[in-house]
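Let's sit down with a protein and look at its sequence and fold side by side. Which protein we use is up to you, so please pick one and set it down. Label the sequence line and the structure token line clearly, so we can match residues to local backbone shapes. Go ahead whenever you are ready, and we will take it from there:

***
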Amino acid sequence: MPFTLDEARPIFPDIQVANAVPEMVQSFNQLKAEDQLALLWFAYTEMGLSIIPAAMEVVPMVFAEKVLTQIKQMSPLEQTQAMCDLVNHTDTPLCQTYSSFSTNVKLGFWYQLSEWMQQNIVAPIPKGYKLSTKASNWLQALRQQVGGQQLTVLQDIVANMGYAPAGGTPNVKEPLIPPKKVAPRTKVRIKGIKNATVLSYMENMNAFDFQATVALFVEEGALNPPFQKPIVGQENILAYMREECYGLKLKPKRGVSEPLEGGGTQIKVFGDVQTPWFGDGVSINLAWRFLLNPDGKIVFLGIDILASPQELLDLQRVQ
């Protein structure tokens, strides 16, 4: 049975989404550049989110090396200006190149800058810098978020920096990097779910076998990542997964399945995901909302960041 995207997106509308994440990103973007840089410095050097250096091994940082070297060779004043330009979305060649990076490369880019700041290779935030009242309030609000939401805020902040001209900046392709090896495949068990498509999706994603994952979608299927527009079409979904999903570890726990009139099925799964950046110490609580056609193909998959882990407990109580 055919579904339009507008009909598919509202499935399981009772999910308690972590709306604090986009709200915090929006309020961060309204701060002055100096405060934004100081808060980034804090996020990378002082927060409980300890970045694992080994994560850099799974990120194609070769694409950022030229820009990083360029910044490294600048004077301290030029370094500060370059970082302010990134925050202010200034139209410069450096900012345009940055906009073409994937989110993981952007995270690695700022991680490297933070390392160099600590080594005084790149101009650090001045000692004794005093945050504005708005920035101090923002920092306090960030501290009140659970680790997974703090990570998501950080990801979204660095993803939005740089300058993208009208029509967008083409993403950097990865022809210089050998194809990522498929990881060992392990069986996934989800309490309440025996659907082969959903189980295969989780297993393929954990194996980084994105080609097999995309084959589970109908040709014009849609993937709706958290707080983003839906990505439509197998080719576009594959490009997104290759850029953004390598290194993720999906840990689905429980789910519910409901048949639909006409033979389709809607399935909701709760669990969490770990990123290579923070290892086992930080998880992002997620809900996956699948809409399957009568042939078991994915028509729509919405991924939501949960407002709190409480939904996992609530689901457990009703089963």
Remarks:
- The beta strands are 217-224, 231-232, 249-259, 265-274, 284-292, 298-305.
- The domain at 20-159 is CATH 1.10.2090.10 (orange carotenoid protein, domain 2).
- The two ends are 29 Å apart (CA to CA).
